Amino acid sequence: MKIGIIGIGNMGSAIAKGLLGKNELFLSNRGSNLEFFKDKEVSIMGNRKVVENSDYIILAVKLNYYKDVIDEIKDLLENKVFISIAAGFTIEKLENLLGSDKKIVMTMPNTPASVGEGMSILCPNSNVSDDEFSNTLEIFSSFGKAIKIDENQFDAASVVNGCLPAFVDLFMEGLSDGAVLCGLKRDVSYKLIAQTIIGSAKLMEESGEHPGLLKDKVTSPKGTTIEGVKALEENNFRAGLIKAVEASFNKAKNM
Description:
It is a single chain. By secondary structure, this protein is of the alpha/beta class. The chain has helices spanning 10-19, 47-53, 63-73, 91-98, 130-141, 151-181, 186-207, 211-217, 224-234, 237-253, and strands at residues 2-6, 24-28, 43-45, 56-59, 81-84, 103-108, 118-124, 144-148. It is built from 10 helices and 8 strands. The radius of gyration is 21 Å and the shape is elongated. The mean pLDDT is 93.
């Protein structure tokens, strides 16, 4: 497949890194992370040339540039699949900007794409054929996992998918601060935290067990873990997570 990416910032470069060596890749010549790709097997060119050479175009510029770039390239999108990764740009908004006849896939990937462990959600409009959507799923699955989401579920799913890496990073930083307070070296704490989170997520996914049940399995009567769980609950840990997701969801709805 011939894939173009316009906008080589944090998310655009993460996707590009995940696609390296797997497809014919065309990158726009604008972005903060282009230096990394200058000696790689990619073609770097202007926005319009990216679209002309690609069958699938991923627009990964910042929100304030979205409409300007769309105006620049929309006349070249005939029979091409336009892929948006922008929060707040619904299928309806994109069709209004591009034309209701255009092939559009609304997506939300996340930054672990750069290490091949991304999670992406996708929602096509009615102009995208089954084969084209299958190809788009394949593109996003090449740097992690990808699933189709109904449009009425997309805002909630995109908040979990797009914002969660930052929430997890904050969680890991806080855990490390606690470990350092208790005498553990910072670099050791991050190694323990990162691998334990990876393993815990994999255990939940592969076992299919409810996270509450997995938590119960490691909380012994009068043990250290239940004491920590108690402290988390006293500080509204779960309520804080719920409020964080709700706040991000409300922001996405109003963009």
